[in-house]
Amino acid sequence: MRDILPVNGVFEMMQLPYAADALQVISVGTLSFHHGKHLKAYVDNLNRLLPGSGLEGKPISEIVKQSEGGLFNNAGQVLNHVMYFEQFGTEHHEPTGKMLEMIVRDFGSFEAFKKEFEQKGATLFGSGWVWLSLNGEGRLVITQEANAGNPLRSGLTPLLTFDVWEHAYYIDYQNRRPDYLSALWQIVDWQVVESRL
């Protein structure tokens, strides 16, 4: 996982690694709100809450692990959203090599993995995230995290995440969360996911 470091004491807004109209299954309208407004608010709140916390200058992963309350909520959402936006692209939409071998080993097949991942995302009550992570034994696990939750807090290494807060999909999919989850496989860049191992 690529950690995020503050620059001159503050966290900066990430730039999308693709054009706003490149993803097709996520509209320009959704990206303008999700990235441009929701993520920006989390970054601004994080920077406002950091002074005096004792966590100034720390990488985002350490803030997520060590903080509570509003600071944790905003740090978690910054990290989660950066991982979410960075994992998409216009190429490499099927896992290969080591990543595929691990998925087949731990879930039986890529299709079985996708089915379980979508089911966990669709059945998470309220707002949150569904994650593929690596545990301490080197096995892949799927977890549900409410609100700003991140698997780092359970000692896992996060690899892939789908955002199931309504702001991630409501403009494009309304209340059809399962359709949104299914569509995202078309834009996952598995090279990015594998680089997080």
Number of strands: 3
Oligomeric state of the chains present here = single chain
Q: Tell the overall outline.
A: globular
Q: Class by helix and strand content?
A: mainly alpha
CATH class of the largest domain reads Alpha Beta
In CATH, the homologous superfamily of the largest domain goes by the name Iron/manganese superoxide dismutase, C-terminal domain
Q: What gyration radius follows from the Cα positions, in whole Å?
A: 16 Å
Estimate the mean pLDDT confidence.
97
Total count of domains: 2
Total helices: the number is: 8
Can you tell me about this structure?
With 197 residues, the protein is mainly alpha-helical. It folds into 2 domains: 28-86, Orthogonal Bundle (Helix Hairpins); 97-195, Iron/manganese superoxide dismutase, C-terminal domain (minor pseudopilin epsh fold, 3-Layer(bab) Sandwich), CATH 3.55.40.20. Helix content is 46%, strand content 11%. The chain contains 8 helices and 3 strands. The chain has a 3-stranded antiparallel β-sheet, sandwiched between helices. A hairpin with a 5-residue loop joins β1 and β2 (140-146). α2 packs across α3 (69-86). The longest helix has 22 residues, at 28-49. The protein is globular, with a radius of gyration of 16 Å.
List the helices and strands and how they pair.
Blueprint (H helix, E strand, L loop, with lengths): L27 H22 L10 H7 L2 H18 L10 H11 L2 H14 L4 E7 L5 E7 L10 E7 L6 H4 L3 H8 L5 H6 L2
Antiparallel strand pairs: 1-2, 1-3
Helix pairs in contact: 1-3, 2-3, 5-7
Attribute tags:
197 residues; mainly alpha; Helix Hairpins; minor pseudopilin epsh fold; three-stranded antiparallel β-sheet; 8 helices; 11% strand; globular
